[in-house]
Design a protein that fits this description.
The complex is a heterodimer. Chain A is an alpha+beta fold. Chain A has helices spanning about 1-15, 25-30, 35-45, 90-95, 120-125, and strands spanning about 35, 50, 75, 100, 115, 145, 160-165, 165-175, 180-185, 190-195, 205-210, 215. Chain A has a six-stranded antiparallel beta sheet. A two-stranded parallel ribbon of chain A has the order 1-12. The chains are: A alpha+beta, B mainly beta.
Chain lengths: ~220, ~290
């Protein structure tokens, strides 16, 4: 009896309408991207090599700013800047103009700094316009849906793990030991990095699948 | 507002609970030796942005520094640690460019002024501590008193290979040959009804050949978000499961890079919260508790 009731409720749950967080017109205008393109963009941002100039360790608009870098230091990965969405070309241009390389939230959103934050990173990987930081971890669900597959085995490269108001990372693959590989704009590492991670780091995160992805 | 899907899920779960045959228990539960949390070492923190001058970095060297982060920025702070032979602790203090040393009770000893933000450190043989710079991943070598050894090249032990067999709740870990123990593959079987093994990680093999393994599992019970639990198991050199730790808290404020360390049969977990840094300690050498019949 209980099993029958469970079966009926399961069917109802599976067939019930899922909330749609996105405007259809927004979805229609999303740039299309293949998963390979998404991952390639992530690798480009993580692999971007630059040299910190003497002017890039200072932020003209913040007196309390302390740089993560030293003059002359060669770094791999676009630096982390809270509120930023600079791709390699824009970052290089700002660096050449003497802007600070990266900044954390403790200094505020600095217009005099260059770099990228976690949601800006995911936006660029998905091919969204770098001219506006349109989506945060809280609004990515407008352009990405929660997949119904088994998250521990069936995620696809280019999906993300998101925790609204906190952080988002790009999934790139599983390891044989069951851990995962992710790319992210990391505040603690001060730049875009790719690496291995355990699941416990992502407790209470939600997998999301970009609605503009071409499978 | 209560969502209809939530009610349905509750009904489904309760239905499963009721419909389970009575008396069915995990095969290993009756005999599994479970190790409880033995103690918590608590280290105070200072937070960037607090106006209390007594908590400024210069006045409160015995604390570790936290940055609370912001919307779309994770908190930052101590995320790496290791345990020395005498049970004392080294913990990264990246926001101050330091590594701080504490005795086994958590009493502050000294701070190493390393001059960079470190996110991981590993005490290895020959009186050497390898510290990783978070922004470059460069490895730096220090002695156990914090003196830099710039001429030495830092290398870390290779991570033993592990493999999970998808959908079968089992896996395998490679073990190094140590002293009298021959090493080789260690077969892991994870039998807990309704729970799925998702990852395996070797935490190391001790001089007796006992191997410590971290396992992550999910019950799939939280469809709204990722839900995992973590276990640490100790296996003998012969591959016998000796004991298990199952009460590992995963509510991290600062996500750890060095999450778990094992030293002389004692398991340590770094858990940085918003109010303190905790090092949770389980002693797998002690008598374990078994479920009552």
């Amino acid at each position: 009896m209980v099993s029958r009731l469970s079966l009926v409720l399961l069917i109802v749950a599976l067939t019930s309408e899922q909330p749609n967080h996105a405007q259809p017109s927004v979805i229609a205008r999303l740039p299309r991207a293949t998963r390979a393109e998404v991952v390639a963009r992530a690798r480009t941002l993580a692999g971007h090599t630059w040299v910190c100039g003497a002017s890039n360790v200072h932020a003209s608009c913040s007196r309390k700013y302390i740089s993560d870098w030293k003059p002359g230091q060669k770094i791999t990965g676009i630096p982390y800047r809270w509120g930023g969405i600079d791709g390699p070309d824009e970052f290089n241009r700002k660096l050449a103009n003497g802007l600070a390389a990266g900044a954390h939230s403790r200094y505020g959103v600095l217009s005099c700094a260059a770099g990228i934050d976690c949601s800006g990173f995911v936006s660029l990987c998905w091919g969204l316009s770098p001219t506006a930081h349109a989506y945060s971890t809280s609004t990515l669900r407008q352009i990405a849906g929660k997949p119904k597959y088994n998250w521990f085995t069936d995620m696809k490269a280019g999906d993300v793990l998101d925790k609204a108001g906190s952080h988002v990372v790009l999934f790139t693959g599983y390891n044989p030991d069951g851990t995962i590989n992710v790319c992210e704009a990391s505040g603690s590492k001060a730049r875009v990095v790719c690496g291995r991670a355990t699941w416990s780091r992502f407790k209470n995160y939600i997998p999301l699948q970009y609605k503009g992805v071409d499978d | 507002m209560v969502r209809p899907s939530g009610i349905i899920l509750l009904c489904l779960l309760s239905g499963h609970l009721v419909s389970d045959p009575p008396g069915v228990q995990p095969e290993t539960a009756a005999n599994l030796c479970t190790i409880r949390l033995a103690r918590v070492i608590r280290i105070p923190v200072s937070t960037i942005g607090t106006q209390d001058p007594t908590k400024s970095p210069s006045v409160a060297p015995a604390t570790l520094m936290l940055s609370p982060g912001a919307k779309d920025e994770l908190p930052d702070g101590p995320d790496g640690f290791d345990v020395l032979d005498d049970g004392s602790l080294l913990i990264t203090d990246p926001l101050r460019g330091q590594v701080s040393s504490f005795d086994s009770a958590g009493k502050f000893r000294k701070a190493w002024k390393i001059g960079f933000a470190a996110d991981s450190l590993t005490a290895i043989a020959n009186d050497v501590v390898v510290v990783r710079e978070s922004s470059t991943e460069q490895l730096h070598v220090f002695d156990r008193e914090g003196q830099a050894r710039p001429s030495e090249r830092g290398t870390l032990p290779e991570r033993p290979q592990a493999q999970v067999v998808a959908g079968q709740n089992r896996g395998r870990i490679t073990r190094p040959a140590i002293d009298s123990a021959h090493g080789g593959p260690l077969e892991i079987q994870f039998d807990k009804p309704g729970i799925t093994l998702v990852s395996l990680e070797s935490l190391g093999t001790d001089h007796k050949g006992d191997t410590y393994v971290a396992l992550e599992s999910t019950s799939g019970g939280s469809p709204e978000a990722i839900s995992v639990n973590k276990y640490v198991r100790r296996y003998s050199a012969e591959g016998k499961l000796l004991c298990e730790i199952s009460d590992i808290p995963l509510d991290y404020y600062v996500p750890p890079v060095d999450e778990l360390r094992v030293h002389k049969g004692i398991v340590y977990q770094l858990q940085t919260t918003s109010s303190e840094v905790r090092v949770n300690v389980w002693d797998t050498n002690q008598m374990c508790s078994r479920p009552s019949r």
